[in-house]
Specification:
410 residues; alpha/beta; Aspartate Aminotransferase, domain 1; 4-stranded antiparallel β-sheet; 40% helix; binds pyridoxal-5'-phosphate
């Protein structure tokens, strides 16, 4: 345990908490808050290096290009990818997954091929595969989980067939928060000759990721859930796969030469980055990664787990409150999705909001999972390392009043 991590006042790093307004922010899985160093990194780009990267052959233009490409190298080290060319900047996870679906999926899958998708996928890692199935004649199959969100060995082995060509799985579900066995899944998928697409939107902010160690073929995450600005995301892809894929979007910057009727595309990674890029966002993402790694994932995780354990312990004592997923706080990555007997999740969220507590209520963009669980809607409190024990206590205290306020017994 890194004790420095425990003692530091992380909240002081986040300007949003310095405002003169009460705010207990427990919607970190939807989007995180941003520390001052990240906001400064983005501002610095526009104040000191702003020019269109890869276009200006003057000093400032070259500096802008360097800034952007250095951010790419920073992400490469963060993901332990072999080459910077394997890192493609996108707007977010959704765009990254669509890139794989349109570019790899549509061009590689054939009628009768199987696409395996876990039942707990966010719509962003389901709809692109529904689209690929509709366009190619491939068949969509589902990897089911246990009611508490576990993807067991048997279920994984049983779901793959010799026809499986692609598996799309989230590393951490945005409903359960449990870390899925991605290494196990890539091993079995590769035995069958299938590629694996990993949605790391909820894992990248909480656990270290080693794309080579996991042997994933593609992996996507969003900057905005990882302390960086909205509008910058990442797709990692194995070089040989990216090389063989057609571009997703076409236009400026992704070409080497253009004739009237044809074009030669730029090499990786630029082939997949059409149009003016988000260089300020990329620089800020690099700064966010520096900030997180300076705290260290171990310290970060221990702090989030201890706050989650505190919340879970109190929630278990509140009559009528039911938490989805594991009983163990260490298996939630800070995500606590729950229902309250007889009270609609929107009412729960409104009552908490009256106490200035921000949580999410609804289907969490995971409707097939909610259908399977027979829970049409739920509340989600998602905890980050910059939350405090006082905030967690205020949340559970407010939650304990919900049923009474709605006219039900304690
Ligand atoms: N995948 C998961 C597991 C998510 O939780 C989210 C966002 O909530 C997404 C994908 C989509 O992320 P974005 O909206 O940044 O593309």
């Amino acid at each position: 345990m890194d004790n420095r991590g425990r003692e530091r006042d992380y909240r002081a790093d986040f300007p949003i908490f310095r405002q003169n307004r009460p705010l207990i922010y427990l919607d970190n899985a939807a989007t995180s808050q941003r520390p001052a160093c990240v906001l400064e990194a983005e501002r610095d780009f526009y104040e000191k290096q702003n020019a269109n990267p890869m276009r200006g052959l003057y000093e400032l233009g070259l500096e802008a290009t360097d800034c952007y490409e250095n951010a790419r190298k920073r992400v490469q080290r963060f993901l332990h990818a072999g080459k910077a060319e394997e890192i493609i900047f996108t707007r977010n996870t959704t765009e990254a997954l669509n890139l794989v679906a349109y570019s790899y999926g549509v061009s590689h899958l054939r009628p009768g091929d199987e696409i395996l998708v876990s039942i707990m996928e966010h719509h962003s890692n389901l709809l692109p595969w529904q689209m690929v199935a509709a366009r190619t004649g491939a068949v969509l199959k589902f990897l089911e989980c246990s009611p508490d969100g576990r993807l067991t060995q048997e279920r994984i082995r049983g779901a793959f067939t010799p026809r499986t060509r692609l598996a799309a799985v989230t590393q951490v579900s945005n409903v359960f928060g449990r870390v899925n066995p991605i290494r196990e899944i890539t091993r079995i998928a590769h035995e069958q000759g299938a590629v694996v697409v990993v949605d790391a939107a909820q894992s990248a902010p909480h656990i270290p990721i080693d794309v080579c160690g996991l042997d994933v073929d593609f992996l996507a995450f969003s900057g905005h859930k990882l302390l960086a600005p909205m509008g910058i995301g990442v797709l990692y892809g194995k070089e040989e796969l990216l090389q063989a894929m057609p571009p997703f979007l076409t236009g400026g910057e992704m070409i080497e030469r253009v004739g009237r009727y044809d074009a030669v595309y730029a090499p990786l990674p630029h082939k997949f980055e059409a149009g003016t890029v988000n260089a300020g966002g990329a620089a800020a993402l690099g700064s966010a990664i520096d900030y997180l790694e300076q705290i260290g994932f171990q310290a970060l995780r221990e702090r989030e787990d201890s706050l989650t354990a505190l919340a879970l312990e109190h929630m278990k004592e509140i009559p009528g409150v039911h938490v989805l997923g594991s009983e163990d706080a260490g298996e939630h990555c800070g995500i606590l999705t729950f229902t309250v007997d007889e009270v609609h999740p929107h009412d729960v969220a409104s009552i908490l909001d009256a106490d200035h507590i921000a949580v999410r209520a609804g289907h969490h963009c995971a409707q097939p999972l909610m259908d399977y669980l027979k829970v049409p809607s739920a509340v989600r409190a998602s905890i980050a390392f910059y939350n405090t024990e006082e905030e967690i206590r205020a949340f559970t205290e407010s939650l304990s009043q919900v049923r009474r306020k709605m006219g039900y017994g304690e």
